[in-house]
TrEMBL record, chain A:
It comes from the Eukaryota. This is ELMO domain-containing protein. PANTHER family: ENGULFMENT AND CELL MOTILITY, LD01482P. GO terms for molecular function: GTPase activator activity. Signal peptide: none annotated. Residues 139-295 form the ELMO domain. PROSITE patterns: ELMO.
UniProtKB/TrEMBL annotation, chain B:
Keywords: GTP-binding, Magnesium, Metal-binding, Nucleotide-binding. It holds the Pfam family Arf. SMART domains: ARF, SAR. It comes from Photinus pyralis. This is ADP-ribosylation factor-like protein 13B. GTP binds at residues 20-27, 66, 122-125.
Length: 311, 380
């Protein structure tokens, strides 16, 4: 069934495109850029259109951009150059006059920025994830200490290997083993949450110490990292990133996404009133379903709602 | 229907418990058995359940988290299981003593006694790993399992090995399952019995709790609005719940003494209640402030509109009597007064003869009629 549909759409699509092109005088990319507001709908449309394109130049362009992003060379310094190149290629291929369609040039390059920024973000996150925590690396150790200082500003860590780590929800005396699976990404996520969202983080931490509904803050945080990573990898998180990012998506945007997830998860957990920690995986699955459902809404934007913070 | 059920049933169930210290490699071991990818295994929070198949048996593995705070909950799962897999990190010898204590605690539990144990000495791929003999010695396994009559097999393995599934785990797993299958009738009746018993116990416990709650509620049958006195609260906070006797005498209950208000003087919040209606006549002493206010309202305004609908119990009482002004009403009043001011300056009130007259004559002083509106004036 699916293959038949693919077959039909493979032949019908160009026909429709040709027809619309002749009647409106605009190519598909223009129609998308003019027809939709900036946001996930437009960017996803452009992405889809570019990926389905059968024009050799466009294919070459897509491959080139993919290559750039997979090697993480899409940086702020050469961003302008890359965007200009991409836009010029499309203008040339589609025979668009940039003087007339100035608006298209602008909105198209913004779309390109988001699409390949997201792709690069995936690579960046994956690199962090596969970097495992190394106790000999001073940088990693410093981050770990910073995490402690941010979460427990009033308490001094007595030693590197200490029972105190269990207060913030690590399993053993030495947190390094708990970063397995998510590597440095888990640590960076937690650190960002504790640093940039001090209020919500301490709020969540205090919830995690609740006598009935408590949970292990850090390892739950690492589980949330895996959820965020899965959403990013599956492309479900595109809605969020395309709607929120104002510039080239970078790791900070991912951290913010994570913070939102963690904060919301905490609320969801408390609302569920679990009997004990054994219900974690069920609640986690349910929460992930909710998030996936809300990401299907093309206008969804997540913000941490800190209104309950004073509780 | 019967045909269908004949086909579906008789997949007998085996339940295994997978425990060990944190970071021993439990989740990796079970994922290896299930053939799932190993690279994203994280610390298990709570438990994760894995379903496997073994011949005509369906195997359910409870993979419990190994953190110290969670070990207390392990024993709730002891009744359900037919066998136990205990995973030890053989390279982490600082924690072997801890592992021994945990294992000892678990085997001492009566629900585990006699059930088969598979001990996996994991992480053999590491250089510093101890071999199985050392592990057995370190854990003092022999006397332990002999005293508990648990059939035990020790296997070495390296769960993250690339050539997965690891042969050690496989071998151990087959042994464990085969042992359970051989003794299935005995083990299963025991498990079923235990489960039934636990259910009964839980039920009894729940009933007891409900009974307790009922008794408590009966003893302390008080108004919801009753304000808890500080001493009562303090006592509750410090653990010794002696609510019943304090309530009987009701000496600690905070209540409002009406004479203060009648005098209108020294009552602390009397300032805000200047117009407080003091028509409290009933004989009985009020149980709480809110009740008192309710009585007040019932006495003073018998035709109060929608008292029941006013959900906010903290609304100042004097607001109940006054009918709230709607926004439009207020606006009309305001506009009216403004208009009459400006218009009144122009309009001679005496006659209202013609509009022409007052339009031209701006300086005729008018006597203001408060609240009269221009439109009405025009009608005249």
């Amino acid at each position: 069934m699916y293959s038949i549909w693919m077959y039909i759409s493979y032949y019908i699509r160009p026909l429709i495109k040709w027809f619309l092109r002749k009647t409106t005088g605009l190519c598909e990319l223009q129609r998308i850029c003019y027809g939709e507001k900036h946001g996930s709908v437009r960017i996803k449309g452009v992405e889809n259109s570019l990926n389905l394109s059968r024009c050799p130049q466009i294919k070459l362009l897509v491959n080139h951009l993919n290559d750039v992003c997979d090697n993480q060379r899409f940086t702020a310094s050469n961003e302008r150059e890359i965007l200009e190149g991409a836009t010029r290629t499309v203008l040339w291929v589609k025979q668009i006059n940039p003087q007339v369609h100035l608006q298209f040039v602008k909105s198209f390059s913004r779309c390109v920025e988001q699409i390949w920024g997201y792709r690069q973000l995936m690579t960046e996150v994956e690199t962090l994830r596969t970097t495992s925590y190394d106790a000999d690396n001073l940088d990693h150790e410093r981050k770990l200490y910073e995490l402690w200082n941010n979460l427990k500003p009033d308490e001094v860590l007595t030693s590197r290997v200490s029972k105190q780590w269990q207060d913030i929800g690590f399993q053993g005396d030495d947190p390094k083993t708990d970063f397995r699976g998510m590597g440095l990404l888990g640590l960076e996520n937690l650190l960002f949450f504790a640093e940039e969202f001090k209020g919500p983080a301490s709020h969540v931490l205090s919830h995690s110490l609740h006598p009935h509904y408590g949970y292990a803050f850090a390892i739950v945080g690492i589980n949330i990292t895996s959820m965020a990573w899965c959403l990013l990898r599956d492309g479900n998180a595109k809605t969020y990133f395309y709607n929120t990012c104002k510039s080239l998506p970078n790791i900070h945007h991912f951290h913010q996404f994570y913070c939102y997830l963690f904060y919301e998860f905490d609320r969801f957990w408390i609302e569920c009133k679990p009997k004990n920690i054994m219900e974690f995986s069920d609640i986690r699955t349910k929460f992930e379903e909710n998030i996936r459902a809300s990401l299907l809404d093309p206008h969804g934007v997540f913000r941490i709602n800190v209104s309950v913070d004073t509780v | 229907m019967s045909k269908n059920s004949n086909r579906v049933i008789y997949r007998r169930k085996i339940v295994l418990l997978l425990v060990g210290l944190d970071n021993a490699g439990k989740s990796v071991a079970v994922k290896g058995l299930a053939g799932e990818p190993l690279d994203t295994v994280m610390p298990t929070v709570g438990l994760s359940v894995t379903y496997l198949k073994y011949g005509s048996y369906s195997v359910k593995v409870f993979d419990l988290g190994g953190g110290p705070d969670i070990r207390g909950i392990w024993q709730r799962y002891f009744v359900d299981v037919h066998g136990v897999i205990f995973v030890v990190d053989s390279s982490d010898y600082h924690r072997l003593d801890e592992a021994r204590d945990v294992l000892n605690d678990m085997l001492s539990h009566e629900k585990i006694r006699g059930k088969p144990i598979l001990l996996l000495a994991n992480k053999q791929d590491r250089q510093e790993a101890l071999d199985e003999l050392d592990i057995v010695e370190k854990l003092e396994l022999e006397p332990l399992v002999n005293s508990r009559r648990c059939p035990t097999l020790v296997e070495t393995c390296a769960a993250t090995d690339k050539s997965r599934p690891d042969p050690g785990i496989q071998k151990g797993y087959h042994w464990l399952i085969n042992f359970i299958i051989r003794n299935y009738p005995v083990l299963n009746t025991r498990v079923e019995q235990d489960v039934r018993q636990q259910r009964l116990e839980e039920q009894a416990e729940r009933l007891e709790k409900i009974e307790k709650l009922r008794k408590f509620n009966e003893g302390a049958r008080v108004d919801d609005d009753l304000i808890e006195s500080y001493s009562d609260y303090d006592r509750k906070l410090n653990g010794s719940v002696v609510r019943d006797d304090s309530l009987d005498e009701s000496k600690d209950i905070f209540y409002i003494r009406t004479d203060y208000i009648n005098r209108g003087g020294s009552f602390s919040s009397s300032k805000s209640n200047d117009s407080f209606p003091c028509t409290y006549h009933t004989e009985e002493r009020p149980k709480s402030a809110v009740q008192w206010v309710k009585n007040q309202l019932a006495n003073s305004q018998s035709t109060l509109p929608f008292v029941g609908l006013l959900a906010n119990k903290t609304t100042p009482v004097h607001l109940y009597g006054v009918h709230p002004q709607s926004a439009s009403e207020r606006r009309r009043q305001f506009v009216g007064s403004v208009r009459t001011q400006s218009a009144g300056a122009r309009v001679p009130t005496v006659d209202g003869r013609s509009e022409l007259f007052h339009l031209n004559n701006f300086h005729v002083p008018g006597t203001k009629e408060n609240g009269t509106r221009w439109a009405e004036r025009r009608k005249v």
